[in-house]
Design goal:
By secondary structure, the protein is mainly alpha-helical. It has 17 helices and four strands. It is globular and about 95 Å long.
Length: about 550
């Protein structure tokens, strides 16, 4: 058989096989294709100014009331760029963005209001821990430190602190705060102070800047009021006013700039690989250590109260007059701290860690009071009310810096150590350094402010990008210790020199006669408690019952 003879049967056989095997598969594919949904064509993108066919309830529906809340807050409430035109995509997107910033504005402002109310807590804690003859004077320092500090901060303090901090996206940018004075050193730029925002004028007349100003101002004022407690019962009022202005205008803002305003401490991570740079979430260092170290410097300059120390150097207790208002003030401060720490997120939208920060704050305050109570009970046989209150505040101070970076276990440990530390520090400052501090402010805020800064470098668990020694990054601790060194070397030194100069010009301390009489009449011209006057005994710090005079007796003798 020739090749052409057998080739034709083979071709026909192949065709038959293909038909037999391929037709079912082809038919199945056609069936599947016919049953599959046809993909809808991709719609063209909606133009920003294209009308959106969405409407809310009618006016008649709304007029009928809304008991279930389903007709309130609808498309009708979205702001139209042009009220005469229908709702557009741009309207919806802009409204969403403004709502996010509005939530953050509201949260930050409310938190700032809480921190401002802490001023009342500080006022009555300090007044209660002082003697009755100085109550008006102590209250008036706490009352006016708010005004003196606010004015100085408005003039220049805020500009020095935050004038180069633009980029606060959570508050809409704060873009006008756009310039930081820097020097180039060791191959890097070192930010030293801001230069925008003096008098909140010019471009800084901006809604975002105003929110930031209010929140930062009440933090600054907290630092200022710490000093009034340590220097109480012998500080000349005019010197208090000038010293407060100085602290609010220069000392506090400069260090705050280095930590929070884009200054060199905050860049230790980027420039030198030290963890995330100096981290102080809500101000154990910036607020409390600055206030506490300034209080130490001032107390060293003005010296102890008359009768505080004996000739042999031993210390006499000079108890306050009202423990009820002391502990009431501690409760007010603990309440205000929910603005201090969670509020430092500067927002609630996209910042849901505020819940953890609030719980950390509660726990550290609790264990701080527990630590102080145990220390006093074990060492002296009785729980001490004023030290329990100071232990609460010490725990709150210590957790302020790490609150954004630690878990609840870390918070409880930090607070407990703070409660012990405040007791040890009060004894050391009183008996070894012989620095008189009527309310324990140096220990509560100074010593525990430093402890809070250090604790970030130990307990930070990696949250928010900050990881401490116990979680694998020893370089973060180095950054924190540089912050501590700056507080001791710069803030304390500047405060001491500035207040020493002020002492030379106006005198920091009242006369001995005025101090013994009590500062209410000599400095304020009115008694806080006019029902009685304490006549001083110049040979002893105590007061005998025979030396108590009624207001009527005083009036008759001075008529």
């Amino acid at each position: 058989m020739t090749h052409s003879a057998w080739l034709k049967p083979c071709l026909w056989a192949a065709i038959v096989v293909l038909l037999v095997c391929g037709l079912p598969a082809w038919a199945q594919g056609q069936t599947a294709a016919s049953s599959a949904p046809v993909a809808a064509p991709t719609p063209p993108p909606l133009a920003a100014d294209a009308p959106i066919p969405v409407s809310g309830p009618s006016a008649d529906d709304q007029a009928a009331g809304d008991p279930s809340g389903t007709k309130t807050g609808t498309a009708n409430d979205v702001v139209h760029a042009d009220p005469a035109k229908p709702l557009t995509l741009a309207d919806v997107v802009n409204q969403a963005g403004q709502n996010r910033i509005a939530i953050n504005f509201t949260w930050t402002l409310v938190a700032g209001f809480l921190v401002m109310f802490m001023q009342a807590g500080f006022a009555i804690v300090e007044t209660g821990l002082c003697r009755a003859k100085n109550a008006n004077h102590t209250m008036m320092m706490n009352f006016m430190v708010y005004g003196f500090g606010l004015f100085a901060y408005w003039v220049c303090g805020f500009a020095f602190q935050m004038g180069g901090a633009a980029g606060v996206s959570i508050l809409g940018g704060a873009s006008p705060l756009s310039h930081e004075f820097t020097i180039h050193l060791l191959g890097h730029d070192w930010g030293l102070w801001g230069t925008k925002g003096f008098f909140l004028s010019g471009a800084t007349y901006d809604v975002g800047v105003m929110v930031l100003f209010l929140f930062q101002m009440v933090f600054m004022d907290t630092a200022l009021t710490i000093v009034t407690g340590a220097a109480a019962e012998r500080w000349k009022y005019v010197a208090f006013a000038l010293s407060s202005v100085l602290l609010g205008a220069i000392t506090y803002p400069i260090y705050a700039n280095w930590a929070w305003g884009g200054g060199w401490l905050s860049k230790l991570g980027a420039n030198y690989g030290l963890g995330a740079g100096y981290a102080d979430f809500a101000g154990s260092g910036v607020v409390h250590a600055v206030g506490g170290l300034t209080a130490l410097a001032l107390s060293m300059i003005i010296g102890p109260r008359i009768g505080k120390y004996n000739r042999d150097g031993s210390s006499n207790a000079m108890p306050g007059h009202d423990i009820v208002i002391v502990l009431t003030g501690c409760f007010i401060l603990a309440f205000g701290w929910f603005g201090f720490n969670p509020g430092s997120t500067l927002g609630a939208s996209g910042a849901l860690r505020i819940s953890t920060i609030a719980v950390d704050t509660m726990l550290a305050g609790c264990t701080g009071s527990f630590g102080a109570l145990l220390y006093m009970w074990i060492k002296y046989g009785k729980p001490d009310a004023s030290m329990a209150g100071n232990g609460l505040l010490a725990g709150l101070v210590a957790i302020t810096a790490p609150s954004g970076y630690v878990n609840t276990m870390g918070a409880t440990i930090i607070g407990f150590i703070a409660g012990l530390l405040v007791c040890v520090s009060v004894e050391f400052i009183d008996r070894v350094l012989r620095v008189d501090d009527p309310v324990g402010a140096i220990s509560v805020h100074g010593a525990n402010g430093l402890w809070g800064v250090i604790s970030v470098g130990l307990f930070a668990d990696g949250t928010n990008g900050v990881k401490g020694l116990f979680y694998g990054d020893p370089t973060q601790l180095v950054a924190q210790l540089i912050g501590v060194g700056t507080l001791l070397g710069f803030v304390f030194t500047l405060s001491y020199v500035a207040n020493l100069a002020l002492h030379a010009v106006v005198g920091q301390r009242v006369s001995a006669a005025d101090e013994l009489e009590g500062l209410d009449i000599p400095e304020m011209g009115a008694l806080c408690y006019p029902e009685f006057v304490l006549k001083p005994d110049t040979t002893h710090s105590g007061v005998a019952a025979s030396q108590i005079k009624t207001g009527l007796q005083v009036a008759r003798e001075t008529a």
